[in-house]
Amino acid sequence: MIKVEDLLYKYDMKEVPVLRDVNMEVKEGEYVAIIGSNGCGKTTLLKHFNGLLSPTNGNVWVDETNTRDPVAVREIRQKVGMVFQNPDNQIVGMSVEEDVSFGPGNLGLPSLEIRKRVEEALALVGMKEYARRAPHTLSSGEKRLVAMAGVLAMNPVYIALDEPTSYLDPSGRERVLDVIKKLNKQGITIIHVTHDMDEIVEVDQVIVMNEGQILLSEKPGEVFTKSEWLKELGLGIPKITELMRQLRRMGTDVRPNILTLNDAFLELSSLIKAKSS
Amino acid sequence: MYTIGQYIPGDSIIHRLDPRVKIVSVIGLSIMILKGEGFTWGIISVFLIGLVPTSRLSPHHILKALRPMAFFLLLLFLLHLIFTEGKPIPPFPPWCVTITYEGLYRGALITWQFTLLLLSASILTMTTLPTDLVSGIERLLRPLKIFGIPSHDVAIMTSIALRFVPTLLEEIDRIKEAQMARGANFKCGTLLQRTKATTSLLIPLIASSLRRADELATAMEGRGYKRGPRTYMKELHISQADYVAVAVMVLITLFHILRSYISV
């Protein structure tokens, strides 16, 4: 479990804290989404999960280990993998397989073990054929998958992804989202930061942030019914939910908490059946 | 984009040699080329030219590798041709320039000397993956740790630099196009104007590179990077072919030493 306790964070010289009164828990196996408008502190919060940043006040615990502990940091970084936004600026190797081998190499694993992990990680993200390719020959989506493989090669328990679908075209987005869902099904805890509400309709918890604070932490069904409030915060709601909301305003009696196309279809078809009988 | 000696994929004996053997050989050959004379150059020429088919490289590849330096080699030849004292070659110019037989001889020899240097380095880079080159350099530098040279750090730095060259080139193109869309002109105008235009390219590039470095460092830390020793997926192994290669190099070196210090 990742536990955040009364977290306060200030960049050195600044007066205004970037994060304050942050309290949250991510249980193993969960799929948690964090949403918030630009500048609300999402990325800063993420960097606390693997000890890249230490709290100014408060504590962050990863499986009972405090992230402030300098000795435990390597272990924490093996447990909590992080995939960043810019596809290029996290690829270090001159070939795909060399980059994926970077993490295990840092852990000092023997060469055969590294090769095994690289192959498995690339297979997990569906990039096995790209092993010898050079990074600059890849599309943004492929680079993103390589970054994910690089993290997976360290056998993490938790993976935090900072806007994993940014810079991607629709097919790239779909590929990445599929992999994320697959990983969660295999038991990896996912922390997914995003602007796109449609991506996260099936998650376990949605955390809403604004100006460094957590305002709400609920199931998606609860969060996305608050469309007016979310709008004020500069956030949207899933497109299907918006559609249903508009229908409600026009008089159709649909449930307010519909998130997926499938649910909308079922709801509407039962309404149509009821009307026609 | 001209790259001197870009890697040509292949499976020849030379491709499969341990990079350390190849690197040390090139260093050794270069020293002998610079210090040697006729006999040594002859042997090395035969050796290097013989390496070309052995490594399944075509003459076309070699010419492509040498092309960027063609102008320099030509200049080198001409300078020696013109400025060497000696017996003048008669039916020459109305200009104040005299060319001599000695100049012809020296020019050709020195130009060939440099061509050999380029050839040996090109064969190295054309038959060795950049990844393996860096591995080789890292292993070779490891014993220098006692002198404070951090071989692992050097390897990572070189690796990252090489990895980002194509990416930075793309970025330059992007910035150039963006600035051109805003009216910058990189082609016409006075030297001063074009220099100013280049500033509009350099400053965003430097700024973005600094940010890139910062993000990359964060990502590396996130994957457990620390300075110092680490393990690699590919471990280098010395094989039989490597012993043969070393034997050949030792032989050439012996010929050179014998010729330089014993005869004449």
Short description:
The complex is a heterodimer of chains A (277) and B (264). Chain A has 277 residues and is α/β, with parallel strands linked by helices. Chain A folds into two domains: 2-226, Rossmann fold, CATH 3.40.50.300; 238-277, no CATH class.
Write the CATH architecture name of the largest domain in chain A: 3-Layer(aba) Sandwich
The proportion of strand residues of chain B reads under 5%
- The whole-number mean of residue pLDDT values of chain B reads 86
Report the structural category of chain B: mainly alpha
Compute the CA-based radius of gyration of chain A: 20 Å
Oligomer status: heterodimer
Number-wise, the strands of chain B total: 0
- Shape summary of chain A: globular
Strands side by side in the biggest sheet of chain A: 6-7-8-3-9-10
Helix/strand structural class of chain A: alpha/beta
Give the number of DSSP strands of chain A: 10
The number of distinct helices of chain B, counting runs of at least 4 residues, comes to 10
Distance between the termini of chain A: 51 Å
Number of helices of chain A: 11
CATH superfamily of the largest domain in chain A: P-loop containing nucleotide triphosphate hydrolases
| CATH fold title of the largest domain in chain A | Rossmann fold
Mean pLDDT across all residues of chain A, rounded?
93
Structure, explained:
- The complex is a heterodimer of chains A (277) and B (264).
- Chain A is an alpha/beta fold.
- Chain A has two domains: 2-226, Rossmann fold, CATH 3.40.50; 238-277, no CATH class.
- Chain A is built from eleven helices and ten strands.
- Chain A has helices at residues 42-49, 73-79, 96-100, 102-106, 111-124, 140-152, 170-185, 220-223, 227-232, 239-249, 261-276; strands spanning 2-9, 19-26, 31-35, 57-62, 65-66, 80-83, 158-162, 189-194, 205-210, 213-218.
- The longest helix of chain A has 16 residues, at 170-185.
- The radius of gyration of chain A is 20 Å and the shape is globular.
- The N and C termini of chain A lie far apart (51 Å).
- The model of chain A has no long low-confidence stretch (mean pLDDT 93).
- Chain B has 264 residues and is mainly α.
- Chain B folds into two domains: 13-144 and 236-261, no CATH class; 151-222, no CATH class.
- Chain B has helices at residues 13-16, 19-35, 38-54, 59-66, 70-83, 101-127, 130-141, 151-181, 191-222, 240-261.
- Chain B is flat.
- The model of chain B has no long low-confidence stretch (mean pLDDT 86).
- The interface between A and B is large, with 41 and 30 residues.
